[in-house]
Amino acid sequence: MEPIKIGIGGPVGAGKTQLVERLTRHMSGEISMAAITNDIYTIEDAKILAQNGVLPLDRIIGIETGGCPHTAIREDTSMNAAAIAELVQRHPDLQMVFVESGGDNLSATFSPELVDFSIYIIDVAQGEKIPRKAGQGMIKSDLFIINKIDLAPYVGADLSVMEHDSKEFRGDRPFCFTNLKTDEGLDYVIEWIRHDVLMLDLGK
After folding, report:
1. Which positions are annotated as binding GTP (predicted)?
2. Residue 89 has pLDDT above 70, yes or no
3. What is the residue range of 151's domain?
């Protein structure tokens, strides 16, 4: 059976790698996981994940995309598809793969041929007006995350404004606030994965 693929997109520094690290750490006892990172000219995110996370090295693949990072997750997904196939070959029990995009603009989205679900993450330090810009990544993702809420007082961001704007463009689609440094809000993301992605509560 093919593993479920979750794409994680967002601007540079928003917390994509940290999100993968925290999710794999908290869910490592219940599901078989792996991760793929995309960077333009390095595999730095893969190294960070290997150093700070719980995934063994053979469950992490770093891809150097070159050029625009969104191309590797949307127009030409062959490198990521090959990496997923390699991970499945290494670990036939694999149930879920995180595909982290390279840091990109607000319009970056994942090809539906590459991932089954997508998460888009931004951070409060980019300003409270960011959700109002309603980029395609924020609109079309299955889950939208606003990270680093602890920085709101220091950058003059009003979380209630960000919440209002997110509801405006998201409609009924889920979104949440997090501080991944302390795991605040992470339980919402984990429950979303369990309920909406893995459907672990079916039949209960």
Report:
1. 10-17
2. yes
3. 4-197
